[in-house]
Design brief:
By secondary structure, the protein is mostly beta strands. The chain has no helices and nine strands. A hairpin with a 5-residue loop joins strand 2 and strand 3.
């Protein structure tokens, strides 16, 4: 009979719950959590550490839904400009650096580089 291991995921800054949406073969997990604001934050859980993924244009929340085996994270964010929900891709680099690119009707571009602490 196979043995199953369970890990509870509670982002340390979450006050309204943590939801996991995707996992890759390396065991990296992505999802989103509710914090002290009414808007959700995306996260990456890797190597026992959490990295918050907040798109810099997101005023109404960032969501991470999947991660592939290359560490590319797909998700979306919502803004308050009336233009709705936008797709985004975060690429996890070495040394805890995350690059976020947004995909809109125009050419995608790099929006932010985040260094995990």
């Amino acid at each position: 009979m196979p043995v199953s291991l369970y890990t509870t995921l509670d982002d340390p800054t979450a006050t309204q719950g943590t939801l996991a949406w995707g996992i890759n073969v390396a065991g990296q997990i992505v999802g989103w959590y509710g914090g002290n604001t009414p808007f959700p934050h995306g996260f990456l859980y890797s190597g026992g550490m959490y990295t918050t993924l907040d798109d810099p244009l997101a005023t109404l929340g960032t969501f991470a839904y999947g991660i592939n085996d290359m560490g590319q994270i797909v998700g979306n964010y919502q803004d308050h400009f009336g233009s709705g929900v936008h797709g985004s891709l975060a690429v996890v680099k070495t040394m805890g650096v995350v690059v976020i690119a947004a995909f809109t009707a125009s050419t995608p571009g790099v929006l932010a580089t985040i260094t995990a602490t």
